[in-house]
Amino acid sequence: MKHTITIINAHPNTRLRRAPVAAGVAAALRGEKIRRGEVRVILVSDEELLGMNREHLGHDYYTDVITFPLENDPLEGEIYISVDRAREQAAEFGVGLYEEVQRLAIHGTLHLAGHEDATETERAAMRSLEDRYLSIISRDD
Q1: Does residue 112 contact residue 67 with C-beta atoms inside 8 Å?
Q2: d(CA 82, CA 65)
Q3: Which pTM was predicted?
């Protein structure tokens, strides 16, 4: 398998270690049997992601992750994660910031792999996959 995973710290004042984020993407790519892929994860602020949400999706609200598939074969895409939103959600769910960012990176990777989350059933299926890949990462630590 040939995967290129790039993590870009573009948040104005928070820098996260790249390895834990890349581990989440890698676990999802392996689990989804994606043989070749290039994924960029860009860590941004709430305001940056809000602007992207407005501009590209026509949504006027804060969100935690936006995924842009660029190519299907080989897989190529970008995942934008709001570090601010991840920090709030981590506190809300009682998990660490890295675990929440990993979950969001996995979530974005699942979208790149073709999974949807428009219905409650689809959201439950994605949540189950996120949990599976997070557990694989925690075993690898």
Answers
A1: yes
A2: 6
A3: 0.96
